[in-house]
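Posting here for the record, re: FE2/S2 (inorganic) cluster.
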Amino acid sequence: MARMFTVAVKDTDKTFPCAEDQAVFKAMIHGRSGPPNHGCCGGGCGVCRMRVEGDWFAFKPMSAAHVSEADKKQGIVLLCCVQPRSDLVVAPVTS
Ligand code: FES
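Prediction output follows.
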């Protein structure tokens, strides 16, 4: 059985559960904490680009057009391409 983690949306009271084998963005949409535009969910459109604090695993390639190697070092990812490996905090990318 997959381990469950809690994902918190920074500076809000929103949290949602996410299984270790589930894309964080899918869990966010399912938990109604995501944006109205659900995007491609395939790593190509960039709608789900956010900063993540915590341990995560990229199970799908992220478009270099939306996430550079420098971004990844700062925890900026495409949420549809990552799964949690700990409780996470996610936040919009402001710059
Ligand atoms: S939803 Fe399109 S890249 Fe994640």
